[in-house]
Amino acid sequence: MAEEIRNILVVGAGVMGSAISQVFAANGYKTVMADLKEEFLETALKRIETNIDSMEEENLADGSYRGAVHANLTTILNSRIPETAELFDLVVEVIFENKDAKHELYRILSDNCRPDCIFASNTSGMDVFAVTKDILKNPERLIITHWFNPPHLMKLIEVVKGPETSDETAEKVRKLLEDCGKKPAVLGKFMPGFIVNRMATVICRGLYYMVE
Predict the structure, then answer these.
(1) Which of 24, 55, 149, 188 is the most buried (most CB within 10 A)?
(2) What are phi and psi of 158, to 5 degrees?
(3) CB atoms within 10 A of CB 163
(4) In the chain, how long is the greatest CA-to-CA distance?
(5) Which pTM does this prediction carry?
(6) Would you call 170 exposed, middle or buried from its count of C-beta atoms within 10 A (0-12, 13-18, 19+)?
(7) Of 12, 75, 79, 7, which is closest to residue 45 (Cα–Cα)?
(8) Do 7 and 28 meet the contact criterion of CB atoms below 8 Å apart?
(9) What is the CA radius of gyration of the chain?
(10) Using CA atoms, how far apart are residues 30 and 24, in angstroms rounded to an integer?
(11) Which pLDDT tens digit goes with each residue over 161-208?
(12) Which stretch of DSSP H or E encloses residue 205?
């Protein structure tokens, strides 16, 4: 296990958030998945079971994998985040790409989590460092971890440092992801599109010219 990270909160139980929670739980991390409504969480747990079924069919997982997920994954409503926040070493934000929603979530996290708790956003391109600049008490702990769909199968994760992200934060996150069998690519600073989406934009532009 990655040093000093044991308890993880994943906020957002959609397709990405549920699979990210699955990955952490399968690798032995005590993981709590949060969302706004119980039905969202119930759907997410069913989705995880379907993911594991598919992995077992392809010999990518066995009974011990499912057992680890069941043993390490629990759920809470977002309303309980303030009262449980001090338990977590890492919070992974996987909510929809809305600046106001992210701003409010990070305000709650900053007010209630321990100063050493790392915040990792799964944004695919939003500058969360600018969005949270006025409310984050410890900006050196904020980083982007951009997972690719489906997270439980895709190895590559883009890890993006902000202007104040510490080297210690980046190293802890890198080690955590490698411990989970992932291949993190660390970017020294934020840039729109990161690596993959910037490359895809160039390729698509060339294809559009060919079609024209």
Answers:
(1) 24
(2) -85, 120
(3) 12
(4) 57
(5) 0.92
(6) buried
(7) 75
(8) no
(9) 17
(10) 8
(11) 999 999 999 999 999 999 999 999 998 888 877 777 777 778 888 888
(12) helix 196-211
- Amino acid type, 137: K
How far is it, in rounded angstroms, from Cα 65 to Cα 113?
30
Instruction: List, in sequence order, the alpha helices (H) in 30-179.
Output: 38-57, 63-72, 81-84, 99-112, 128-131, 167-179
Residue 3: predicted pLDDT: 56
Cross-sheet strand order for the sheet of 156-161: 73-77, 30-35, 7-11, 90-93, 118-121, 142-147, 156-161, 183-187
Give the separation between CA 105 and CA 78, rounded to whole angstroms.
9
Q: Which residue has the higher pLDDT, 188 or 11?
A: 11
76's enclosing H/E stretch is strand 73-77
In contact, 95 and 11? CB cutoff 8 Å:
yes
pLDDT for 1: 47
For residue 32, what is the enclosing H or E element?
strand 30-35
What's the CA dihedral at 120, 42, 30, 57 to 10 degrees?
A: -100
Q: Per-residue pLDDT tens for 14-37?
A: 999 999 999 999 999 999 999 999
Residues acting as catalytic residues? 124, 146, 158, 197
